[in-house]
Design goal:
alpha/beta, disordered N terminus, calcium ion binding
């Protein structure tokens, strides 16, 4: 899949043509090299060699390309035949390329395309894009495109009719003129080169708090070092360096704990200090301070070693070098001469902690090594108190705060064990946990907590974002992607056929649990069993349907299958029968293999705040989630629904609805753009019910009045710049326009193939002028760098949640 580059400016067509020509020449050279490498002594290649040469995996398109390139029908292609065909595609006009496309679709070569040929082409397009749809949906796509193109109703599509149909899609016609290298095989995605950004106003706009704190940190170290070194200038340069580093270490080794006071940081987020301090970068500053501590400790140690060596060589010193370094005999230190031995122990302990904190240890299945060695900070503090006479003064306030927070967290988290009451195993090895919510557990949308499940690992606590809204009073949702040792063990544990404590009377517990759940006042739980039931069509995956709860005001009517929660018994039975009559790919019941009711003990610690708390104070928020990075936004979007419903009123007589003019005092949002990027089709099923509900909430509003806009992207799907997907994307557009829903997700929002063109996305956001724009992202660090660069270009504030 090609990664969109910088968008061409309106006056840069010649530049684009030059770039395209260079790409074509380079690509043709690569194809020639591939051919010469694969071809035998006869200089010819067959179909299998052709697939290898052009990396065309789908057999239909490989066979069609091979047949068209084999001009003499010999069953093999010479280098000359391949060059002639590719040169036509590269240097030919759009009409030449359109004729080639028509020949690809005209399987039997009779000069027209019938419905069966078109269906074969679209089926191959679906396989190329890794999209799975029921046969009935494929038939609908075929008929939608065929009926639109067959204007004379002759039962076949001619070249002229295909040309006229393509002209109705300007984007497709534009792609007929792009580089032929994008036609046959999309170039491999290459990471955008990281260019050094100057200290521009836009860069300062997004990093001023970090830069100011970093400058203050450096300035404080210079001051502390200078004061300590100056106080010991009579003892020589080595002592001056050692004392200067020691004074800086007094500050670093005490303040480093403050950066991990999560409850204090969460409280600070509710104050004006959140606008001044870089609270979202506390972990990065903690890591930076760790590197500084290691560096200063090494310099501090080397300076003392030099000083001890000089003393040992002096005739006036009664001690040898190793006695000064390792024993208490010289009496160095304020507690029984322990400065030297404790210094050596501190350095060894620090280096061990530093080594075990590296990413290769933490993220390669050895989290317990990182966890237990990191607990040695208690021993380090004790040794530091014995080592330095003034360290206890620096540690007094941070230490008290640290131990108070730890004691409070331990007390609250261990006060009473909670239970996991329900588990759903979702696509891409995502575990959806429903935990019984404690009575006094108050959190905000986007917050996270630490989870401990003794059955999985007794001493391990891992942070996860809460995906349920605070308005959901009885359960807490967590969506956990299996990416490490602990999360994989969690998924495999629940995947077992008979997990612990999930024994008999499952249906009885299910009924009790459902009756015990109560939504916020004025809201009723409406089970949406899948996006397929909610919207009528979805991909066929028989084992992944997940029931999610959505919120609706009392009295709000539902349509179609969406009204199951508020129907009478007879109507509900009829609707369920209709749902059962849907195509075989549409699942109306949860699979018992992937959905379990249980009662497994767990503990939670939190909640803790993140940068997403700023969303409700924004005017125009752009929420970008990549894969499971949607989790914090799921909570936020559900909360937005609830707040939106609080302002919504419905007349009991005429069902007319209107909104209060006064917004929630905690919610200043005028517009929300939600962008979700997924690698494959199945990942959309994680939160399809939530997104369905979001669309339904705004169904009665005009396009201009809608405060929430959804944008869905599927990166595995081939875009309209790929010849193997032009027909499919046209058919998907036509059917979506006809049925008012997307065939891939079942949502009203059309799923776009490929990756977003971020320049165009942000240009559109800026042109809307809905207020000050703030971008919130949760996903991979590589994409975060790209987004941060675009935000600096448009002067948008950028916030990233680490996960």
């Amino acid at each position: 899949m090609s990664v969109p580059g910088d968008p061409a400016q309106p006056d840069s067509e010649s530049c684009r043509g030059t770039t395209s020509s260079k790409e074509d020449a380079k690509w043709l050279q690569w194809v020639t090299h591939q051919f010469e490498t694969i071809a035998g002594e006869d200089g010819e290649i067959d179909l299998q060699d052709f697939k290898k040469a052009l990396n065309v995996k789908e057999s239909f398109f490989a066979e069609r390309f091979f047949t068209l390139f084999d001009s003499d029908g010999s069953g093999t292609i010479t280098l000359q035949e391949l060059r002639e065909a590719l040169t036509l595609l590269i240097h030919g006009n759009p009409m030449d390329k359109l004729k080639f496309l028509f020949q690809v679709y005209d399987v039997n070569g009779n000069g027209s395309i019938d419905p069966d040929e078109l269906r074969t082409v679209l089926q191959s397009c679906l396989r190329e894009s890794a999209i799975s749809l029921p046969d009935e949906k494929l038939d609908q796509l075929t008929l939608a495109l065929f009926e639109s193109a067959d204007r004379d109703c002759s039962g076949a599509i001619t070249f002229e009719e295909l040309r006229d149909e393509l002209q109705r899609f300007p984007g497709v016609m534009e792609n007929l003129t792009i580089s032929a290298a994008h036609w046959l095989t999309a170039p491999a995605a290459r990471p955008r080169p990281r260019r050094p950004r100057p200290l521009t106003s836009a860069y300062w706009h997004n990093h001023r708090s970090q830069l100011l704190c970093l400058a203050a940190y450096v300035g404080l170290h210079v001051l502390l070092f200078a004061l300590a070194a100056n106080a010991h200038r009579a003892l020589g340069p080595s002592v001056m360096v050692a004392k200067g580093c020691g004074q800086c270490l007094n500050f670093d080794c005490s303040f480093i704990a403050v950066l991990m006071l999560r409850r204090c940081l969460t409280w600070l987020r509710a104050t004006w200090l959140a606008q001044v301090l870089p609270l979202d970068q506390n972990i990065q500053f903690h890591q930076l301070m760790g590197y500084v501590v290691v560096g200063l400790s090494l310099v501090h140690t080397v300076a003392h070693v030099v000083n001890f060596a000089l003393q040992a060589q002096s005739d006036t010193s009664p001690f040898r070098f190793w006695e000064l370094l390792l024993t208490t005999r010289p009496g160095i230190g304020w507690v029984h001469g322990l400065a030297s031995p404790t210094g050596v122990a501190l350095l060894l302990l620090l280096l061990l902690m530093f080594a075990c904190s590296s990413p290769c240890v933490r993220r390669s299945g050895y989290f317990e090594v990182f966890y237990w060695t990191h607990l040695s900070y208690l021993a380090m503090w004790l040794l530091l108190i014995l080592h330095g006479p003034n360290f206890w003064k620096w540690l007094l306030v941070p230490g008290i705060l640290f131990f108070l927070e730890k004691a409070f967290g331990l007390t609250v988290s261990r006060m009473a064990a909670l239970s996991i009451v329900e588990v759903n195993l979702l696509p891409s090895k995502v575990t959806h946990l429903l935990i019984k919510r404690p009575p006094l557990f108050h959190y905000r949308p986007g917050d996270y907590l630490y989870l401990n499940i003794p059955t999985i690992a007794r001493y391990e606590w891992h942070p996860f974002t809460i995906s349920s809204a605070p308005e959901q009073k009885d359960t807490i949702w967590l969506h956990i992607r299996s990416q490490g040792q602990w999360t994989n063990r969690l998924y495999e544990f629940f995947k077992a056929s008979d997990p612990v404590d999930c024994g008999p009377k499952r249906l009885s517990r299910s009924l009790t649990m459902r009756r015990s759940q109560r939504m916020p006042q004025g809201l009723q739980p409406q089970p949406i069993q899948s996006g397929a039931l909610a919207q009528g069509a979805m991909a066929s995956h028989k084992d992944v349907t997940v029931e999610l709860m959505s919120y609706l005001p009392k009295g709000t009517p539902r349509q179609g299958h969406q009204g199951l929660g508020c129907m009478g018994t007879e109507d509900r039975t009829q609707a369920q029968q209709e749902a059962a009559a849907e195509p075989r790919g549409l699942v109306s019941e949860m699979s018992s293999e992937n959905h379990q009711f249980c009662n497994i003990k767990c503990y939670i610690d939190g909640p803790y705040g993140t940068s997403t708390r700023r969303i409700f104070a924004s005017e125009h928020a752009v929420l970008i989630g990549a894969g499971i990075g949607i989790t914090p936004f799921a909570s936020i979007l559900q909360s937005i629904i609830h707040r939106h419903q609080k302002r919504k009123h419905i007349c009991p007589r005429c069902q007319h609805s209107w909104m209060d003019g006064v917004q929630d005092e905690d919610m200043k949002l005028h517009k929300v753009d939600f962008i979700w990027i997924n690698r494959d089709q199945r990942s959309f099923e994680w939160f399809v019910s939530l997104l369905t509900n979001l669309e339904m909430e705004q169904a009665a509003e005009t396009q201009e009045d809608r405060f929430l806009e959804l944008h869905m992207y599927m990166t595995s799907a081939l875009g309209k710049n790929d010849m193997k997907a032009i027909g499919l994307q046209m058919a998907l557009d036509l059917l979506a326009k006809k049925e008012k829903k997307d065939s891939i997700t079942g949502l009203q929002t059309r799923t776009q193939p490929g990756r977003p063109d971020w320049s165009k996305v942000f240009q559109k956001v800026a042109a809307e002028k809905k207020g000050k724009v703030q971008v919130f992202f949760c996903g991979s660090p590589a994409l975060a760098k790209v987004l941060k660069g675009h935000c600096e270009q448009f002067s948008f504030r950028f916030f990233q949640e680490n996960f």
